[in-house]
Every structure is written in C-alpha cells, then in structure tokens.
C-alpha cells in the first residue's frame, strides 16, 4: 500500500479502491507469471512449437476472461449490486480470478481434465498441485468470509 502512494497523486487505499484493486490484480498476476516462468514446475519436453505456444496462450486468456465473468456472476448472485457498482464488482472478480484461475492456468494450462482431477477429492499428485488447491480454496473462502461483516453496517434505519 506504500508503493502506489509514491506514484499516484492523492492515492489512499480507502479513497481510491478501484485503483487499489487494479494495482493488486496487476501485481499478483505479474508475480504469478514471473514465478511460473522462472520455476517451470511441470515443463513437458514435447509440443514446444511456436504455434502451440500461441494457441495455449490464447486459450489461457479466454479461460481467464471466462473465469472473471463467472466470478462476477457468482458475486452478483450472492448479493452484490448489479448496476450501481459494476466496476467494483468486476474488479473484485478479476482479483479473485487472479488468485485462483491464473495460478491454475500457469500450472495446469487450459486442460479442463487436469483442473477436475486437481480439485476433486485427493486429486493433487504433487506439492505444486496441493499448493494450488489450498491457495484457490482459501482465496474463495476468504472472499466469502470477508462478506460476513457487511450486514453489520449499522447505518440503515431498520438495523438500529
């Protein structure tokens, strides 16, 4: 929260929450991609053609965008405002997708069968996949548990 304050005039975490969500999403996504490129936990020796890499990258981009839309729909179904706060809701969906789907795409790629295997009961076969399970589930549960205090905003007349 200190670094953006040096680069953006008038930046505060509370006052510019949209900017803060963008900064968090970009930082987490960049860190995930850099760590994946440096560590490469499951590099397969076959299929290294340039066309295959481009195809895989485009599929990953489409899956990430679809996960953003899916998380946005789920957040709205759980009670987020549909019209009033579209930007906030979508940026929260992007942040949640960055914490969950982007890591899956970096580690497993656009392979739906691998996703189902990893997230089924006792499906993780390596330490990387176990870490992926724990991080994704904790991100989703943390977002859900973070919504519990919202009804405790005692600013409504019927809550007094």
Question: How would you describe this structure to a colleague?
Answer:
The protein contains 7 helices and no strands. The model has no long low-confidence stretch (mean pLDDT 78). It is an all-alpha fold and 160 residues long. Helices cover 66% and strands 0% of the residues. The longest helix is centred in the middle third of the chain and has 28 residues, at 50-77. The protein has a domain at 48-147. It holds the Pfam family PIG-F. Pathway: Glycolipid biosynthesis; glycosylphosphatidylinositol-anchor biosynthesis. It is found in: Endoplasmic reticulum membrane. It is a multi-pass membrane protein.
List the helices and strands and how they pair.
Blueprint (H helix, E strand, L loop, with lengths): L2 H5 L9 H23 L10 H28 L8 H14 L1 H8 L3 H8 L7 H19 L15
Sheet with the most strands?
none
- What is the radius of gyration? 18 Å
Instruction: Name the average pLDDT.
Output: 78
pLDDT < 50 stretches: none
Separation of termini? 34 Å
> In sequence order, what are the helices and strands, one letter per element?
HHHHHHH
Helix content: 55-70%
Give the helix/strand class.
mainly alpha
- Taken from the alpha-carbon principal axes, the silhouette is globular
Number of helices: 7
Portion in beta strands: under 5%
Strand tally is 0
Organism: Chaetops frenatus
Transmembrane segments: 18-39, 60-83, 89-109, 130-150
InterPro entries: GPI_biosynthesis_protein_Pig-F (IPR009580)
Main location: endoplasmic reticulum
């Amino acid at each position: 929260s200190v670094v953006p304050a040096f680069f953006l005039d008038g930046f505060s975490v509370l006052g510019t929450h949209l900017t803060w969500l963008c900064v968090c999403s970009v930082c987490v996504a960049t860190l995930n991609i850099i760590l994946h490129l440096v560590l490469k936990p499951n590099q397969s020796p076959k299929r290294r053609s340039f066309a295959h890499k481009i195809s895989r990258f485009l599929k990953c981009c489409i899956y990430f965008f679809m996960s953003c839309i899916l998380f946005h729909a789920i957040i709205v179904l759980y009670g987020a405002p549909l019209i009033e706060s579209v930007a906030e809701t979508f940026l929260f969906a992007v942040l949640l997708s960055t914490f969950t789907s982007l890591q899956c795409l970096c580690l497993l790629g656009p392979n739906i069968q691998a996703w189902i295997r990893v997230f089924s009961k006792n499906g993780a076969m390596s330490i990387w996949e176990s870490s992926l399970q724990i991080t994704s589930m904790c991100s989703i549960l943390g977002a859900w548990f973070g919504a519990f205090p919202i009804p405790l905003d005692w600013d409504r007349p019927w809550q007094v």
